[in-house]
Amino acid sequence: MSTSPVRAPAGPARPTAGDRTRQVVVTVNEIACVLGTLVGIGLFGTRVEESSGGSLAADATLLAPAGTAFSIWSVIYLGLFAYTVWQWLPSRAADPRARATGWLAAVSMLLNAGWLLVTQQGWIWVSVGVIVVLVLVLGLLVQRLAELPDPGTRLDQLVVDGTFGLYLGWVAVATAANVAAALVASGVRQEGPGAEWIGVAVVLVLAAVLAWIQHRVGGRWAVAAASAWGLSWIAVGRALDEPQSLTLAYGAALAAVLVVVATALARGRAPAPGAAPHAAGRSDRGAQTVTARN
Where does this protein have compositionally biased stretches of type Low complexity (predicted)? Predict the structure, then answer.
């Protein structure tokens, strides 16, 4: 009687030259992102709220979040730094999550720095183009995370999913605010009830887009938290600061609630974390096949 040799379990994949290149590019772009941030806070240049003729200030447009909202950047930047360190860990160099997200993360860091630099030049419409590309890159990154069957460890989820979920949720709201700033800077008037109701329509459409995103990525609380944070501070800004609009304040608050509700519903429909994509569908088809054979 012969016995088959027992094979040792396969170890982690060995890093390739492409993995090492990706790690270096992420690190270089993180440094660029930090330098851009130092420009944006006024250490080397003009603060963001004072750049572009003040068009990006917290009281410049109906869709501008109150100043406190921007403190979320501190959490996001800390997360990007942690991600840069995480992807250098020996066990993560060839990790599927690092491979799926690394290049997109690097692009997002470069776009972040680029946005800060173009606003320094007063190129408000160029900044709109940059932030639109940024939100698309982040959406693709989070979508890739949702497609991976293994959610990783708690640390992986915090550093990767948490960071880029917050990043996406906040930048989605910031995109709407950026477009509003560009329109007002170009001479579009924002006085009167008509402008207020257009603002309400914009935040509700934004909530619908975020709900659609959450449906695609399985409902991620980090995305919901950051977007609800931004929408809530739009509500606070319009209730307590100029340009004042209680109509838009209520609309933004409603949009924040809708995002949270949509996220909860999306999570209720999503497969359990770690489940292989479409596994449920395969199980159903398998059951049907067994029934047919019987």
Answer: 271-280
Is residue 60 in a domain? Answer: yes
Q: Tokens representing 40?
A: 């944006």
Q: Is 272 left (phi over 0), alpha (psi -120 to 50) or beta?
A: beta
**What confidence tens digit (pLDDT) does each residue in 63-105 have?**
999 999 999 999 999 999 999 999 999 989 899 999 999 999 9
Hey, what are 277's tokens?
């994509």
Confidence band of 46 (pLDDT split at 50, 70, 90): confident
- Domain assignment of residue 80, yes or no: yes
Q: Angle at CA 123, nearest 5°, toward 233 and 57?
A: 25
Q: Is residue 57 part of a domain?
A: yes
pLDDT tens per residue, range 128-139 = 999 999 999 999
Angle, helices 17-40 vs 96-120, to 10°: value is: 30
> Distance of alpha carbon 10 from its chain centroid, rounded?
34
Residue-number span of the structural domain to which 159 is assigned:
18-268
- Cα–Cα distance for residue pair 97/188, rounded to 1 Å: 44
* CA angle at 126 for the pair 115 and 205, rounded to the nearest 5°: 85
Our count of domains for the chain comes to 1
Largest CA distance in the chain: 90
Mean predicted confidence (pLDDT) in 210-236: 96
Distance (Å, whole) CA 119 – CA 65: 17
Question: At which residue do the structure tokens 């690092």 appear?
Answer: 98
Decide: 109 and 77 in contact? Cβ < 8 Å: no
